[in-house]
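P.,

For your records, the input lines for the assembly:
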Amino acid sequence: MTDSKKALIIGASRGIGLGVVDVLTKRGWQVTATTRDAVPAKAPASVEWVKLDINKSEAREAVKDALSASHFDLIFVNAGVFGPDHQDIHQASDEEIIQLFLTNAISPVRCAAQLLPLLNHRTGVLALMTSELSSLNENEVATYPLYSASKAALNMLTRGLQEQTEKQEVTLLSVHPGWVQTDMGGESATLTIEESSTGIVDQFEALSGKGGHHFVEYSGRKLRW
Ligand SMILES: NC(=O)c1ccc[n+]([C@@H]2O[C@H](COP(=O)([O-])OP(=O)(O)OC[C@H]3O[C@@H](n4cnc5c(N)ncnc54)[C@H](OP(=O)(O)O)[C@@H]3O)[C@@H](O)[C@H]2O)c1
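Structure tokens returned:
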């Protein structure tokens, strides 16, 4: 086990985050994962769990301190929310919009920046979960505008990490998982959690060592910003 690659997955209590934990574990990775609440019942036994609500700065600091002696080959910030179902900027309260942008754009990048020093130089991969809906080119009609705008903000703030990731010579990824059957994606989604998570892990492994900032979906298709 000492030669195993090590991953830190932020937001892994369910859905795609837990799916990625499963795939990595099956491929022999040693995984540390975070949850806001209880450890998920279906989690692989080998996973080390840490409590984290990404919106709480003291909790982010505590996780950083607790993991300060660790080195990771992959850090994946997956946590995210959809925001109000109606997705209407006029109906949404200021507090709902603040929470959406805090959870999807601000906190993931703060988390990533704080944990980046733990990532191995050169081969390390720092990945943040976005959506193709964030793209002005891929989402021309502004489908789900509030959610999509929060992920567009995430993409630009992720780009802001590039100076730091270049110094460390690691690869920076903005990942689109496809449309996935989770609590967020719903039952009509085209992909199972296993299909999406397998593809996402394939991209982590394929892009390690490449450097730069890539906007890529689970299948390996490169997306336009
Ligand atoms: N499903 C899709 O089709 C799809 C498409 C494009 C992008 N995405 C993105 O993929 C990611 C995962 O989505 P999913 O479909 O797996 O959704 P999900 O089943 O709703 O899971 C969301 C995950 O994020 C965690 N989370 C939310 N707020 C958090 C916070 N403040 N601190 C820590 N963890 C938090 C949740 O933890 P709790 O259990 O504690 O709530 C849960 O583990 C999200 O970023 C989403 O925007 C999904």
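Two observations worth noting. The longest strand covers residues 30-35. Residues 6-217 form a domain with the Rossmann fold fold (CATH 3.40.50.720).

Regards
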